[in-house]
Specification:
Helix content is 76%, strand content 2%. It has 312 residues and is an all-alpha fold. α1 runs parallel beside α9 and α7 runs antiparallel to α8. The protein is globular.
Length: 312
């Protein structure tokens, strides 16, 4: 391993890609995913804003998910890409703290927002007559605001503590971004108390929301089972299965890293699993939740027609 200056306050991000041709191919693949995520999420935000037919609670929540994913992937990939391209792997102490803060804020906010979206579908299918009351505009705003606030408060606490830990070993973080579990391996003090708080946070913001999402979709599937239309059942089953697949891609790797002991994981495992919730999920969300939706595709056609008529 290279000898990095241990007297510097900067951290060194060892990165995701090996310095080989395979590493270059992986880099190009990640950049393509990044561009797809940017285009997909930005398109969803603009489409929901421009088309009045999508001004409903469901799509209001979807627009927020796209906004979070847009910021989420932009917090991680550009720095990772520049480190690989220019070979400058250092990140300042403050820069590491800023990246960690935004990552944790967006990660928790998205976990809570996904729970709100599952609840929205649960109410729409199981209690359609109560939907206008249970999912009013005020309730949607409270859900979204609560997600951002709880994410920010949780992130502030963890980032502030992580930056106060004395790092007396090498400052080379064996990861591609400043994630708290990877930073803790460099601490020269016993961090078991703090690791316990990380464990509790993971239970609150990962396990409980995942249980809530699973319960919501379980109730939806149970309600749909008694539907007379077999075509309607197939449609809902298909939608629920794809939604649960993306949710699993997001929650399960997250939970494994933040709930399992360090002795049971390797840095390589952590990096591979982190790709699922930092790179793949922001790209998949606009495809699974939105672009496969007939209303979204209809709105896309209307917006295109509107712009073409204006030009003519």
């Amino acid at each position: 391993m290279e000898n990095y200056n241990q007297t510097s306050t900067d951290f060194i991000l060892l990165g995701l890609f090996p310095p080989s041709r395979i590493g270059l191919y992986l880099f190009i693949f990640v950049i393509l995913i990044f561009l797809m995520a940017l285009i997909g999420n930005l398109s969803m935000i603009l489409l929901i804003f421009l088309d009045a037919h999508l001004h409903t609670p469901m799509y209001f929540l979807l627009s927020q998910l796209s906004l979070m994913d847009l910021n989420y992937i932009s917090t991680i990939v550009p720095k990772m890409a520049s480190n690989f391209l220019f070979g400058i792997k250092s990140i300042s102490f403050i820069g590491c703290g800023v990246q960690s803060f935004f990552f944790l804020t967006l990660a928790v906010a998205e976990a809570l927002l996904l729970t709100s979206m599952a609840y929205d579908r649960y109410v729409a299918i199981c209690f359609p007559l109560h939907y206008p009351i249970r999912m009013s505009r005020k309730v949607c705003v409270l859900m979204i605001t609560g997600s951002w606030i709880m994410g920010s408060v949780n992130s502030c606490a963890h980032t502030a503590y992580a930056l106060r830990i004395p790092y007396c070993q090498s400052r080379a973080i064996n990861h591609f971004f400043c994630e708290v579990p990877a930073m803790l391996t460099l601490a020269c003090m016993d961090t078991w108390v703090y690791e316990y708080t990380v464990f509790v946070s993971a239970i609150l913001f990962l396990v409980f929301p995942f249980i809530g999402i699973t319960y919501s979709y379980g109730r939806i599937l149970l309600a749909v089972y008694y539907m007379p239309s077999s075509e309607g059942r197939k449609k809902v089953y298909s939608t629920c299965s794809t939604h649960l697949t993306v949710v699993t891609f997001y929650y399960v790797p997250f939970a494994y890293i933040y709930l399992c002991s360090r002795s049971l994981r390797s840095p390589t495992e952590d990096k591979v699993l982190a790709v699922f919730y930092t790179v793949l999920t922001p790209m998949l969300n606009p495809i699974i939740y939105s672009l496969r939706n007939k209303m979204v595709m209809g709105a896309l056609r209307r917006v295109i027609q509107r712009f073409c008529s204006v030009k003519m």
